[in-house]
Write a structure and sequence with these properties.
heterotrimer; A mainly alpha; B mainly alpha; C alpha/beta; A: two-stranded antiparallel ribbon; globular; B: mainly alpha; two-stranded antiparallel sheet; 15 helices
């Protein structure tokens, strides 16, 4: 395995992270909510697909047909019940309630599905690989994932730019108060944004289930990676999420190359380094603040 | 033209008060309670002592999380990182360097404080959600580093134990007693420390920061310094709690939600503070008592237990955001521990 | 014939401050009412309460015979009330056209479409695809008014459209407004410039510290009367 292979695999991994993070970025962009339960909601998608494939013996891809609309509904309801009230209650409250939701989901999943790992069947594409060279082999599933990520991000981009819903989303994100004054129902807009975000999360969850084994506690880790991708790429930018995902993916692959155990750690280190670099770049502020410390 | 003499009304007199009769009584009572509890090893059974230790470290965690979130506006989802540092730090000093375990606990607490400084430097610039997740990432990084540590004393992914340093020096009964006093002492010291900090200018600054950070900075409040102090204290406090957990259960794991670096500690902290009363001084203690009672007397499976904790936390956040004590405080204008000021009019 | 808008004993708080106290007035269809008063008199808060952005603490707002006091802002737009907020408040990253189209969500029938708005405000025609944040003050004001018009309102509320604009630009804005006014749109406008206010309005109401202290038709009131009310001066009656 060469470093080039790390780079390439990192890019494809980044595609997955972008898919996972897209919903998180959307919710933050429109509502300034960091949904700590995002990874958990994605995981529910994986478990639902698992149930459907186990009991109905259909392909995982076909299971998406009921899972995605179901996720839309879940997201809509979640917003209208819990998140709307959390937003009104204060700035910190959404963090607390979404964290509570994370804990509830992780434990409910463990109750109903046991702590064992499961995985989803990726179909015929699963084991197939594109042998680029003797040292580099790219799984076709990863290519599919990257393609889906591009489609989702592109689709979101189109919706935001071209549709009335997209205009309403952008207007409400910029100034919810004035949006209401021009006839936009902000609460409905928020609910639709959350619905879309959760649906994308569920899609990402299903793909996660196909690329790796999952257990009820996986939601937490995936949330961290998704968030790292969003932050590295620059909060507030959809395509930035793709860039961030790719940087994260490459860091993780390189870390794993050095030592398999360093996979997640490498990502965390890069994430923290980006944070430090960003705060250091507001240098005048640091000097000013240091003077105050003294 | 007649002139009417206009009498100036007597200017109302004001008095700024810190202590009320109620708060004097309560503080005195609290000090008395601590003294009484100190005699527990002599009076109470071992089982009770074992359980009370748990109450103490839960109370410490609740106080620390409340200090960050309630007074500093900092929702940290990564305090478990410091709990783990405390536990593993104590192992490091006592197992690897064969120091007295209680001394190791003290040193590990200091390590927690010291480590909090560079962490603060990295994360305190962040707001709200970004801050929350950054603290979690830091905690995860600590957990992974510990689990990868090749040193056999630390034990890597399979965890470690402080059995040896304790058993070489103390009988199990002695360990229980000494750990009990260490835990009670830690609670008392941290309570006192927070009390002093909040009554000082820092307390006023923090209130200002909570109300409006920019306005506070514009009148000279050192926002980052205030938050930094809170973060270091919280780091030390959580590390202390971690050392007590180690002394209490002797063996610890680094990874997994229930480990000493696990997210379930934050779940408990949030529960205690939301139920007790975010931003009040007395609230976290009440929340810790509630959690302790739940844990001791409600026996349901671990999984449903956390579902319940999470659900109750959400419920309080949405429906009773001031928590039990916060609501009481608002209704009856009561303050048991005098960290604020009261304005009294009249003679 | 009952008035298009009836406000009865409205109380509105702004934070801890009582911004609007027991305000009552009526606006007939087709009428233009000017609200004047010093800063902080409560004019903007009143308009926002009429538009639904501020929940009143007491009193009623009746529009087209219906009590809309509890109606949220976006539903009032559908009912036919549109506010051009103080400071324009355009959506900065949306283009002029997008700012106009987003207001089309109200789906009310009427003559105003994007093309109609661009015809009424020709200066906007070359700026269709320009980001709102990069527009000049006058261009922003035109866009903001156009955006409100896109909802085809029966009642148009204008909050300080001359704020921060150069006199010549204000002239242009009022020129465009004249068309609206003469066309029979019912308008309530808040204006600090007394001369302008009295120039375009059928009736003038002066607010001071949250109350309406003077009200009357254009012909009835003199400049002096309005100025006095504006500043809260009372001319002492000559002693007998």
């Amino acid at each position: 395995m060469t470093w080039v292979a790390d780079l390439v695999h990192g890019i494809f991994l980044g595609g997955f992270y972008a898919l996972l993070a897209a919903g998180l970025a959307l919710m933050f962009g429109v509502m300034r909510i960091i949904n700590l339960a995002h990874g958990s909601l994605a995981l529910i998608g994986a478990y639902m697909a698992f149930l459907l494939t186990e009991h109905l013996h259909i392909s995982t891809y076909l299971a998406l047909a009921p899972v995605l609309p179901g996720a839309l509904v879940v997201g809509y309801v979640l917003q209208r019940t819990m998140l709307e009230r959390s937003l009104r209650a204060g700035q910190l409250v959404p963090l607390l309630t979404t964290f509570g939701l994370l804990i509830v989901i992780a434990n409910l999943l463990q109750q109903f599905f046991s702590p064992d790992v499961h995985s989803l069947d990726a179909g015929r594409i699963g084991p197939a690989s594109w042998h680029v060279s003797s040292e580099l082999s790219i799984p076709w599933f990863d290519v599919l994932t990257l393609g889906i990520a591009f489609s989702v991000l592109g689709g979101l981009h189109l919706v935001l730019r071209v549709t009335q819903l997209g205009r309403e989303l952008r207007a409400t994100a910029a100034d919810a108060d004035t949006a209401e004054l021009v006839g936009v129902n902000a609460r409905a807009v928020y609910a639709r944004a959350t619905a879309i975000a959760v649906a994308i999360a569920a899609l990402a969850g299903v793909f996660y289930g196909m690329r790796s084994a999952f257990d009820p506690n996986a939601g937490a880790n995936e949330l961290l990676y998704a968030f790292e991708a969003v932050v590295i790429g620059g909060i507030g930018s959809l395509w930035g999420t793709l860039v961030g995902g790719i940087v994260l993916g490459i860091s993780q692959e390189i870390g794993a190359h050095i030592n398999q155990e360093y996979f997640a750690l490498a990502g965390h280190v890069v994430f923290l380094a980006v944070l430090v670099a960003r705060s250091a770049s507001s240098a005048p502020r640091i000097r000013y603040t240091l003077r105050r410390f003294a | 033209m007649s002139e009417t003499a206009v009498a100036t009304p007597a200017a109302p007199s004001f008095r700024v008060q810190r202590w009320t009769p109620l708060s004097i009584a309560f503080t005195g009572g609290l000090a008395g309670l601590v003294a009484v509890l100190a005699f527990a090893p002599v009076m109470l059974g071992e089982n009770t002592q074992y359980n009370l230790i748990q109450l103490y470290f839960l109370a410490i965690m609740a106080m620390m999380w409340n200090a960050l979130a309630g007074y500093g506006g900092l929702v940290s989802v990564g305090q478990q990182g410091f709990i783990g540092i405390g536990a593993y730090g104590a192992v490091f000093f006592s197992v690897q360097h064969e120091m007295n375990p209680y001394l190791s606990m003290l040193l590990a607490t200091l390590v927690g404080a010291v480590v909090a400084i560079p962490v603060a430097a990295v994360v305190l610039w962040l707001r709200n959600g970004a801050f929350a997740i950054a603290t979690w990432v830091v905690a995860e990084a600590f957990a992974i580093l510990v689990s990868l540590d090749p040193n056999p004393a630390i034990g890597g992914g399979t965890g470690t134990s402080a059995l040896l340093p304790f058993n070489l020096r103390y009988t199990p009964s002695q360990r229980l007693h000494y750990t009990y006093w260490a835990a009670l002492g830690a609670v008392a010291v941290l309570l006192l420390l927070l009390f002093v900090l909040l009554r000082s200018r820092l307390g006023g600054s923090l209130q200002a920061i909570r109300d409006d950070e920019e306005a506070a900075a514009s009148v000279g409040v050192r926002v980052l310094l205030g938050k930094g102090i809170l973060f270091v204290v919280a780091g030390a406090g959580c590390a202390a709690a971690g050392t007590i957990i180690l002394a209490w259960q002797l063996s610890v794991l680094p990874l997994g939600p229930n480990s000493v670096f696990g997210i379930n500690w934050t779940a408990r902290m949030i529960f205690m503070v939301l139920v007790g009363g975010l931003g009040t001084f007395e609230g976290p203690i009440i929340g810790a008592v509630v959690l302790y009672l739940l844990q001791t007397y409600v026996s349901i499976s671990g999984v449903w237990y956390f579902v319940m904790l999470g659900g109750i936390a959400i419920g309080f956040a949405l429906l009773l955001p001031r928590g039990i004590w916060g609501t009481i405080q608002e209704r009856f204008n009561v303050q048991l521990l005098p960290v604020g000021y009261r304005l009294r009019t009249g003679d | 014939m009952s008035a298009l808008l009836q406000v009865e004993s409205l109380d509105v708080r702004h934070g801890l401050l009582q911004a609007v106290r027991q305000v009552s007035f009526e606006v007939a269809e087709g009428e233009t009412l000017a609200l004047v008063g010093a800063n902080g008199a409560g004019k903007s808060t009143l308009l926002r309460a009429l538009a639904g952005a501020h929940r009143p603490a007491g009193g009623r707002v009746v529009f087209e015979g219906r009590d809309i006091t509890a109606m949220p802002a976006h539903r009032r737009v559908k009912a036919g009330i549109a506010l051009v907020p103080e400071g324009r408040r355009l959506f900065p990253d949306l283009t002029v056209e997008e700012n106009l189209r987003v207001a089309g969500a109200a789906h009310r029938d009427g003559r105003w479409t994007v093309d109609e708005v661009l015809e009424a405000f020709p200066l906007l025609q070359p700026l269709r695809r320009k980001r709102a944040a990069s527009l000049s003050g006058g261009e922003q004001q035109a866009t903001a008014i156009g955006r409100a018009l896109m909802t085809n309102p029966r009642l148009l509320l204008l909050d300080e459209v001359s704020l921060g604009l150069a006199p010549i630009v204000v002239e242009g804005v009022y020129h465009s407004l004249r068309g609206l006014i003469e066309g029979g749109t019912t308008i309530v406008l808040v204006e600090q410039d007394l001369a302008r206010a009295m120039g375009v309005a059928d009736r003038v109401a002066c607010m001071l510290e949250g109350r309406i202290v003077l009200e009357g038709a254009r012909g009835e009131l003199t400049r002096e009367q309005v100025t006095d009310a504006y500043f809260g001066l009372r001319r002492a009656e000559a002693s007998a």
